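Entry 14. Structure prediction run on the chain below.
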Amino acid sequence: MHSICKGERGQIKGLLPKETESSEEVWKNYLAIHFPHKISQVILQLLKDHQNTNKILAELIGPDVKAVQSMMFLKPPGKPGQAWHQDEFFIPTRDRSLTATWIAIDDATIENGCLWVLPGSHKRGILWPMKPHGNPDFDASELAYGFPENENAAIPVELKAGSAVFFNGYLLHRSLKNASTSKYRRAFANHYMNARSLLPWNWDGRIQGHVEDNRDIVMVVGEDPYAYKGIQSHTFPFIRADKKMEGAVFNEVTNLV
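Output returned:
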């Protein structure tokens, strides 16, 4: 993680200049990095070759599974959480198969900003609208609203380091601010889907024109029925924005170095 945050593994959009050497000093600047598997073989292997994870993904999704996104959360003390949302709102699949794998690197607790979920909220199969929230305790992402579930029914998902949780792309979930004074909440959050389905994801508007099937994917389990289309490379690593930034593309910071 240290070498990634210092830019030693490859270019990351929004990375600050290399001014410090210690892990703590580097990590404290960043909430999360999107698509770190693009520059780290270790994270790429975690994304596609973890035996226990792959077994569960095959059981949840089907015999053919592809990865579409990786995220490395650092979330040092004081960094914001993310408001209520559904992953499939951002990453649409044709068959509603999007599945997240959230792997704790540190103990994830209520204090340092663990996940909170509304149990069963995925079962309706409805994507709720999103709007700006203006709450500094949450990052630049918008807030899902209009859903009938009572927010008071939310439960925390506290995990020990090394543990993982899997959940459906329609599940309403959020995380709160890291309220600790010294504890990080590092984690890897990866997204997978049925490889037999198409991925009409324009990468939050970055890919121009109609996107029938985004082929910037990594095969994980089974066969790729669309291998004849080849593999594309649209995405790149970038720093996740803590707050809404003028002129920024979705979730990116604007200070490119």
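The chain has a mean pLDDT of 91.
Filed with the rest of this week's runs.
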